[in-house]
Each structure stands twice: as C-alpha cells, then as structure tokens.
C-alpha cells in the first residue's frame, strides 16, 4: 500500500490542528485526528494547548501504523486487496477504529469476496455514512469503482 498516499488522504479528511481541541463528539483531540489517550502527555491539558509540530507528526506516524496493523487483523488478506480498497479500508479504520469497523460484518464479508458493489452498498447502509457524509461518499465511490 502506498503509505504516503494514505497519509495525504487522511490529512485531507481529518484536517490538522496543532493544538488540543474537542472533536465533534466532545473528545480531546489534536494533530491529524489523534484522540488524546490517558497515556499521552497531553492528557488532561485544556483545549487550546499548543502541540509541537514534531509531536503531531510522530503521533500521526504511530496512528497510521496502528491502523495498518488493525487492518491486517480485521482483514487477513488485506495486502492482497486492490490498492484503492486498502487505502479506503485504512481510511475507514482511522476514522472509526477497529471496534466499530468490525461491526460492519456484511461489508467485511463483501470485501473478502471481492464483491465491491455489495461492499459499497454496505458502506451506505450505516450510521457512519450519515455521520461523515462527504468523506463516506468519496470512499464509497472508490469502492464502487472497483466493481
């Protein structure tokens, strides 16, 4: 998978904020969509606290690696999938996390069967699709184009 292309797509979809802010669900976040964890030194810092650019890049690299690892766990043949499918799935994993994406059972089954039209339909038939509509529409179109 072209990791640089994935990183570029994620930065566009997530945006980049070099300070702590509350995401749309009210969770402390910084950088490129990084949810502040208890293990982060930023944990407990108030909204608006600046975060060093090098720290943003470092955490993003770690987050992308974790996403790739999670993709391999959820999709054992992940790296055998078409390049665009890999990046779309990784984008979804970054956005939702493995716990939420693992609930997309019909989507996962369709991907495993390379049934891209069904996978696309399953993406649309989700609460996630309505929550991140523009992003979801773009990702869905890319999966549908594989069909």
SSE layout:
Layout: H1 3-14, E1 17-22, E2 28-31, E3 34-35, H2 53-74, H3 83-101, H4 105-112, H5 116-124, H6 127-131, H7 133-144
Antiparallel strand pairs: 1-2, 2-3
What is this structure, in a nutshell?
With 147 residues, this protein is mostly helical.
Q: Keywords for this structure?
A:
mainly alpha; 3 strands; 3-stranded antiparallel sheet; single chain; 147 residues
Low-confidence stretches: none
Main β-sheet description: 3 strands, antiparallel
Strand order of the largest sheet: 1-2-3
What percentage of amino acids are in beta strands? 5-15%
What is the tally of helical segments? 7
Structural class: mainly alpha
N-to-C order of helices and strands = HEEEHHHHHH
Tally the beta strands.
3
Silhouette = elongated
- Radius of gyration in whole Å, from Cα? 16 Å
Overall mean pLDDT score?
96
- Distance between the amino and carboxyl termini: 19 Å
- The helix fraction, in percent, is 55-70%
Task: Walk me through this protein's architecture.
The structure is a single chain. This protein has 147 residues and is mostly helical. Helices cover 59% and strands 8% of the residues. Strands 1-2-3 form a three-stranded antiparallel β-sheet. Helix 2 (53-74) packs across helix 3 and helix 4 packs antiparallel against helix 5. The radius of gyration is 16 Å and the shape is elongated.
């Amino acid at each position: 998978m072209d990791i640089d292309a994935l990183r570029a797509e994620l930065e566009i979809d997530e945006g980049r904020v070099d300070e702590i802010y509350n995401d749309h669900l009210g969770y402390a976040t910084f950088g490129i969509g990084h949810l502040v964890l208890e293990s982060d030194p930023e944990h407990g810092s108030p909204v608006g606290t600046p975060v060093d650019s090098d720290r943003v890049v470092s955490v993003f690299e770690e987050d992308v690696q974790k996403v790739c690892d999670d993709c391999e766990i959820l999709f054992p043949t992940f790296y055998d999938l078409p390049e665009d499918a890999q990046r779309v799935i990784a984008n979804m994993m970054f956005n939702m996390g493995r716990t939420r994406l693992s609930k997309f059972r019909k989507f996962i089954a369709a991907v495993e069967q390379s049934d891209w039209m069904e996978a696309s339909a399953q993406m649309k038939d989700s609460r996630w699709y309505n929550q991140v509509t523009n992003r979801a529409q773009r990702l869905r179109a890319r999966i549908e184009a594989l069909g």
